[in-house]
Amino acid sequence: MTPSMSTAAPATQDRARPAELTTRALRAGYGGRVVVDGVDVAIPVGQISVIVGANACGKSTLLKTMARVLTPMDGRVLLDGKEIRSLPTRRLAQRLGLLPQQPIAPEGIAVADLVGRGRSPHQGLFRATSGADRRIVEASLLATRTEALADRSIDELSGGQRQRVWIAMALAQRTDVLLLDEPTTFLDLAHQVEVLDLLTDLNRERGTTIVMVLHDINLAARYADHIIAMRQGRVVASGAPSDVVSSGLVREVFDLEADVIPDPVSGTPLIVPKGRYHVGGRDQVPGQEGA
């Protein structure tokens, strides 16, 4: 069981007013090619939002633009009503954290040192590490079950171990808003659930606003308070999973026929894809039904 943030982390005073992240008529892309087109989103403060959709629909592009990794072609990204591009870099890093899909670490860096870099936006001019910084790093390692890896080089780790270390660094940053692009990449099912439980701990106990891109719509429906469904660069539906996830939405977003039933564990929507070979509860070859 993943340690609770309340037991793993030292007591800290959270900000009284969480950050509000929104986009207005946002257009973004690469090299003149529009990938996100006219998107208005309001991320619910203090909740977990998950962006879902087919490959190349604009999920990661939207997340990167909200994180100021990409500059909008048009439209606006606002943090607390202010243009995100106008905020000083260090100030932005204190309020908003990003775990990209393929983060890059300095060659040979030790795990504890990498996680400690999450504290840099909060440190003074000479980057001195305080006792509070060290406690937060230790708590982040413990929460992600990477404390035994603290002295090892990041280069020695498996893909799953590396992903958990990156999440530890994101936790150490202690931002109001945390954006994660496919945080369960490289993880087996047990570790996917463990990581999503950990992020839920962070949300519930610190009130951190979390925005994730996930490919697994069933995990998205189980863990999200708010789902943003995209198709071809536009938002086609948003809201609570129970309100927006339906067979019609799955057809529109993924071009897939599916039944949607209550998840027997969580009661959230569970998508059961039909495919071409499993109709009526038995294997059938298309064109040979009833043969």
Structural summary, described in words:
- With 291 residues, the protein is an alpha/beta fold.
- 31% of the residues lie in helices and 25% in strands.
- It has 10 helices and 14 strands.
- The protein has helices spanning 5-8, 59-66, 89-95, 111-116, 131-143, 159-173, 189-206, 217-223, 241-244, 247-254, and strands spanning 21-30, 33-42, 48-53, 74-79, 82-83, 96-99, 177-181, 209-213, 226-231, 234-239, 258-262, 269-273, 278-279, 282-283.
- It has a 6-stranded mixed sheet, with helices on both faces. It has a 4-stranded antiparallel sheet with strand order 2-1-4-5, covered by helices on one side. A two-stranded antiparallel ribbon has the order 11-12.
- β1 (21-30) and β2 (33-42) form a beta hairpin.
- The longest helix has 18 residues, at 189-206.
- It is globular, with a radius of gyration of 20 Å.
- Mean pLDDT is 87; it is low at 6-16.
What key phrases describe this protein's structure?
291 residues, alpha/beta, 14 strands, 25% strand, globular
Short description:
This protein has 291 residues and is an alpha/beta fold. It is built from ten helices and 14 strands. The radius of gyration is 20 Å and the shape is globular.
